[in-house]
């Protein structure tokens, strides 16, 4: 849980210093800085913005750097910081610090500050390419399977080398080298598949639970599916050798763990009694798609929180849930299910809303006990704490909620 958050020179947030609670509501007009605060937390956790990947787009105008710093408290206190800076040519660089020491990779911060984002843009997740869907599975696997990240890095390194070799003008004279890469690539592809599959099998159980609540009419006909990106029943190196000519003509590797995907299918019967499997995005209405995405996100959250007890504590931390513009995409019933689910789990929430009445919804759920339903004997007063902030032109003011 983030106890203290400092933000400097990010968009319209010149200087912010907040002490946060377990549940935090940020209210304010459009453009006031609500989403920028979530962006800052996400940047610290992931090393990139969810709004724009170029730092020059979110570093405050006429400034050369922005900084986000946080003190967290899980089993013990630690500090995390990221600075994004621009040189005179506009190129960006990052400085990362953990417990006041410079670290070389973003993964150190990501391990200690998991974030789950639910925002209006994510509601189009299923209509986008496979990259976004693969990333949400890999986010789960990264935090639940400790060996996954190292093997993912090795796979990416080998894939880059293989693709470079495929583009080499003398590739036909380098086939022994290519086949050696293929053996290693295959080893790591199968390792990644095993990690993903283990997490996916757990995820589907929680997904079914959330579908039952959010889309009950589709509960018996809707399923989440995982695609490995290659035929995992045989060695990948064998398949790559068979497809070598096509890969050389294209200059990249077409199959492998980097092509993994997840999709959602709806099963029905036609007039002849045959079972038909169709993409859910082709059947569901726009509103139903939003509920489906919400089910995906909340089932991730439930799995993540429930898996913590089984993971060594140095890599297991409850996620910070970032919910942007709560009232924008969901109806009242869905909002209530979302909030009940989040409040029933041992995670921190930072919620933005245009509507000050959201405060009343949170208070009602809090009084009904939904913020204490998960492991009640282990929840402290701090775990159940709640704060509300009003933001105007990048300046935050804590509200009196007594």
From TrEMBL:
InterPro entries: DNA-binding_RecF, P-loop_NTPase, RecF/RecN/SMC_N, RecF_2
Binding, ATP: 28-35
Keyword DNA repair included in the entry's annotation: yes
Single GO cellular component term: cytoplasm
One of the Pfam families matching this protein, by short name: SMC_N
This protein's UniProt keywords: ATP-binding, Cytoplasm, DNA damage, DNA repair, DNA replication, DNA-binding, Nucleotide-binding, SOS response
Domain (RecF/RecN/SMC N-terminal) ranges: 1-361
Record's keyword annotation contains ATP-binding: yes
Domain of life: Bacteria
MF-aspect GO terms: ATP binding; single-stranded DNA binding
One record GO biological process: DNA replication
Family to which this protein belongs: Belongs to the RecF family.
Function: The RecF protein is involved in DNA metabolism; it is required for DNA replication and normal SOS inducibility. RecF binds preferentially to single-stranded, linear DNA. It also seems to bind ATP.
PANTHER family noted in UniProt: DNA REPLICATION AND REPAIR PROTEIN RECF
Name of protein: DNA replication and repair protein RecF
